[in-house]
Automatic annotation (TrEMBL):
Pfam families: Flavodoxin_1 (PF00258). Coiled coil: none annotated. Low-potential electron donor to a number of redox enzymes. Its cofactor is FMN. This is Flavodoxin.
Length: 145
């Protein structure tokens, strides 16, 4: 079994719930999932992986959370060429610009966004959003097998 990391930042738990559902999808598809808050994640481990997922809500003004996820992303960016990366996150009132910027950043670093788009959810994930998160997990499991 391949271990797939799901690294997230979440202030009020919405993105964390999404991370748990991505992990469920990975496990349903027969691979191992590890869900890690970004402060506990190791950039060098992700740089060794073929595929992983990153989650962060829209913060600031349509930005990644700046004290942890933004710094993590800066460290990661130069070593993700050829990788398959799932993106997800919750938002409140915006139009999803933070996610489009994030997708572009991942592609500019030479990686692919799993499913072509990050999953964005207004507030807490409902059943349909949870299913999308699981689908992402299943796609990640396929990407490493
Ligand atoms: C400081 C701060 C800035 C935010 N900025 C945005 C924003 O620019 N656009 C948006 O759609 N939501 C914004 N939000 C709303 C969060 O993205 C939303 O509450 C989300 O569900 C939080 O996810 P979490 O529970 O994983 O922390 C902001 C929230 C906070 C606390």
């Amino acid at each position: 079994m391949v271990q797939i990391s799901i690294v997230y930042w979440s202030g009020t738990g919405n993105t964390e719930l999404m991370a748990q559902k991505v992990a469920e999808g990975v496990r349903e598809a027969g691979q191992e999932a590890v869900v890690l808050s970004v402060d506990l994640a190791d950039v060098s481990e992700l740089k060794k992986a073929r595929a992983f997922a990153l989650g962060c809500p829209s913060m600031g003004a349509e930005q990644l959370e700046e004290t942890q996820m933004e710094l993590f992303m800066c460290d990661l960016e130069n070593g993700i060429g050829g990788k398959q990366i799932g993106l997800f996150g919750s938002f409140g009132w915006g139009g999803g610009e933070w996610m489009r910027d994030w997708e572009e950043r991942v592609r500019n670093a030479g990686a692919s966004v799993v499913g072509e788009e990050g999953i964005i959810v207004n507030g807490a994930p409902d059943e349909e959003a949870e299913e999308k998160c699981k689908e992402l997990g299943r796609a990640l499991a396929v990407a490493v097998s």
